[in-house]
Amino acid sequence: QTVVTQEPSLTVSPGGTVTLTCASSSGAVTSDNFPNWFQQKPGLPPRALIYRTDNKHSWTPARFSGSFLGGKAALTLSGVQPEDEADYYCLINYYNAWFFGGGTKLTVL
Amino acid sequence: QVHLVQSGTEVKQSGASVKVSCQTSGYTFASYGVSWVRQAPGQGLEWVGWIGTGNGNTFYPQKLLGRVTVTTDASTSTVYMELKDLTSDDTAMYYCVRDWGYVPDFWGQGTLVTVSS
Questions:
Q1: Which of A27, A103, B33, B82 could form a disulfide with B19 if both were Cys (CB 3.0 to 4.6 A apart)?
Q2: What is the pLDDT of residue A84?
Q3: Residue B27: Cβ-neighbour burial (10 angstroms; 0-12, 13-18, 19+)
């Protein structure tokens, strides 16, 4: 059973840059795993940010970008805003089964 | 505009079943699959299943095989998720999500399912 691992927590200063990663126990994450990223704020459903590694939805702010980094999927926030404080989840696919990462709690301080 | 509207809060006894609905609108129902995702209190997200609304194909996680069933009613553009043999571990917020080609995008508002012993 695949386990997807994210940093439990990260802290970034306003205006700074931070990268969140998403690793798989089944090996390197690739485009065949169709990585997605979501943002979730307290009391709300998750909101889709990035799909298929590096594609933004129409509502995704330009400061969010997706990529691969050392065999992991990555989400980079550049020019972080206070409203970016939230939980972030990655999602990858193996043979029509979805696996979420445990989530990263991002603090903007 | 795309909307996914879910049914209301459910409280069930251990061993019972629950069926949650997700009524969709604003797009061509059969052109997009729908996934279900749950989130236990204070915990992360867990995929519960997927249905291809055009052909009825389904996929479920190994952990829930035999307990979860996702179905559709094309006449009302509604997707259902039924979970049986409930335990306290099934207490969670359940979300439906439109899913096209490995791209989950629009989420429902969530349905809280509480299982009491």
A1: B82
A2: 98
A3: middle
Mean pLDDT across B92-117: 95
Place of tokens 């994450």: A29
Distance CA A105, CA B83 (A): 30
- Per the structure block, which two tokens stand in for B95? 């979300």
- Chosen from B34, B102, B107, B109 to mutate, greatest number of chain A CBs within 10 A: B102
In the predicted structure, residue B101 carries a pLDDT above the cut 90: no
Amino acid at position B71, single letter: T
Q: Using CB atoms, which residue from A38, A48, A97 is nearest to B61? A: A97
C-alpha distances out from residue B117 to B18, B92, B94, Å: 15, 15, 20
